[in-house]
Design a protein that fits this description.
Layout: E1 4-8, H1 12-24, E2 28-32, H2 35-45, E3 49-53, H3 61-71, E4 77-81, H4 86-95, E5 99-102, H5 107-138, H6 146-159, E6 165-168, H7 175-184, E7 193-197, H8 203-211, E8 212-213, E9 225-226, H9 228-231, E10 236-240, H10 247-259, E11 261-263, E12 270-272, E13 276-281, H11 285-291, H12 296-302, E14 305-308, H13 319-330, E15 337-338, H14 340-348, H15 354-368, E16 373-374, H16 381-391, H17 404-418, H18 423-430, H19 434-444
Parallel strand pairs: 1-2, 1-3, 3-4, 4-5, 6-13, 6-14, 7-10, 10-13, 15-16
Antiparallel strand pairs: 8-9, 11-12
Length: 449
């Protein structure tokens, strides 16, 4: 698309000269000799950029700039100023002008400024687009439960640092989403975010993907290739499923974390990078270390800041928020809502697949529901069958009998674990008052952690 440039200057000769010079550069040019006329043309034509004289006869150039920025804040504006009004031009840049040029100037000078301003504007648009796409791909962390408030606080605290982060949790809990949020809230947010699934590639290809390779390094290496670390320079790299990385590769990764340098496969040049590393895994790395499948020194290098993503079953208060989020995502027109009975079904299920399973259940329900309200029947059969077993557990009564007191003690302990020992929530969950709960705790000798 040909860039459209709007020139606003009260001197018709200046408008003519700029129109002629910029048209020869391949731009489409509009001109206005009054400030109000320029504002109107901005509204009607959505120019790619504006060249604006600071002194206008009908309305001050600063006011025109403010009006243009109110119409579209992203339009780059170059101010034309005289020697005596440079201070005002600097004020204009504080308001949002991209640059200024002082009269008299050569047409070649302003051609260069226009080219640079359009280039920067295009880069900003690309960055904004990529940020939006990143958000669409990974979504965002959602939840008001205590567990998720703690996660959000940790993300906020670690984001502005360059610290290496290890994010652990079951599959589907949102580890990758948390990694993206750390990047987006960091000082590297305008730099690359590069992700690699360590479990998806065999060892040789994994090394090439991480560090790149030189031409002829191995069969099929027909040209030089940059690795993910090199591409992510000044930005963030996400090493997903780090627990699946072969031990030989772990040693090479350890060196990068220690020295921030590496060589491409088949190369001798040492490449230095400034990359923030975030690693995720659903494996128990302590067990992997004891089995010899994960390096202990690498673990401590990665585990500078540890964020644990809680499973959905431990934060069921967040389920309605997540359900509404997925309804908006998959049904933007809001043509369907969820019944209270269906929502109750969702909050009683334990979600072994966590948020990913919930998302799939909502997407499926929107497809199979022919009416305007989602009911429990629209959820997968395996969910409903599992729920029946959960809601109506079978209690085996032994011939020798059992103690009601022991059963009550067991239930209280389980309720405490479920609600992170929050006494108010436990009392509400068990349908008793808090003083009654305290009495039971004392009676059975249950100590709060």
């Amino acid at each position: 698309m040909t860039p459209r440039i709007l020139v606003i200057d009260d001197e018709e000769r200046m408008c003519w000269a700029l129109e002629r010079a910029l048209s020869h550069e391949g731009y489409q040019v509009l001109t206005a000799t009054r400030g109000l006329q320029g504002i109107k043309l901005t509204e009607e034509n959505d120019p790619s950029m504006v060249i604006l004289d600071l002194k206008m006869p009908d309305i001050d150039g600063i006011e025109v700039l403010k009006a243009i920025k109110a119409i579209n804040h992203n339009i780059p504006v170059i101010m034309i100023t005289a020697h005596g009004t440079i201070d005002t031009a600097i004020e204009a840049m504080k308001i949002g002008a991209t640059d200024y040029i002082t009269k008299p100037f050569k047409l070649e000078e302003i051609k260069v400024q226009v080219k640079q301003a359009l280039h920067l504007s295009n880069l900003e648009n690309q960055v904004n687009f990529l940020r939006q796409e990143l958000g669409k791909k990974y979504g965002k962390t959602i939840g008001q439960s205590e567990a998720m408030k703690e996660v959000a606080l940790l993300i906020q605290q670690v984001a502005k640092t360059g610290t290496t982060v290890l994010i652990t949790g079951e599959s589907g809990t949102g580890k990758e989403v948390a990694a993206v949020e750390i990047h987006k809230a960091s000082n590297r947010s305008d730099k690359p975010f590069v992700a690699l699934n360590c479990a998806a590639l065999p060892e040789q290809l994994l090394e090439s993907e991480l560090f790149g390779h030189e031409k002829g390094a191995f069969t099929g290496a027909t040209s030089k290739k940059k690795g993910r670390f090199e591409i992510a320079d000044k930005g963030t790299i996400l090493l997903d499923e780090i627990g699946e990385m072969p031990t030989s590769m772990q040693a090479k990764l350890l060196r990068v974390l220690q020295e921030r340098c590496f060589e491409r496969v088949g190369g001798t040049e040492t490449i230095h990078v400034d990359v923030r590393v975030i690693a995720t895994t659903n494996r128990d790395l302590a067990t992997a270390i004891s089995k010899g499948t994960f390096r202990e020194d690498l673990y401590y290098r990665l585990n500078v800041m540890h964020i644990i993503m809680p499973p959905l079953r431990s934060r069921k208060d967040d389920i309605p928020l997540l359900v509404n989020h997925f309804l908006e995502k998959f049904d933007p027109s809001k043509s369907k809502k969820i019944s209270s009975e269906a929502m109750k079904t969702l909050t009683h299920y334990n979600w072994p697949g966590n948020i990913r399973e919930l998302q799939n259940a909502i997407e499926r329900a929107l497809i199979v529901c022919q009416g305007s309200e989602i009911q429990s029947i629209h959820f997968p059969k395996e969910l409903l069958n599992s729920l029946e077993k959960t809601i109506a557990p079978e209690i085996n009564l032994s011939e020798g009998g059992f103690s009601l007191g022991e059963l009550e003690k067991h239930l209280i302990i389980k309720a405490l674990e479920k609600h992170n020992y929050n006494q108010t929530k436990v009392a509400k969950y068990l349908g008793i008052t808090r003083p009654t709960l305290l009495y039971r705790l004392q009676k059975y000798g249950i100590k709060i952690q």
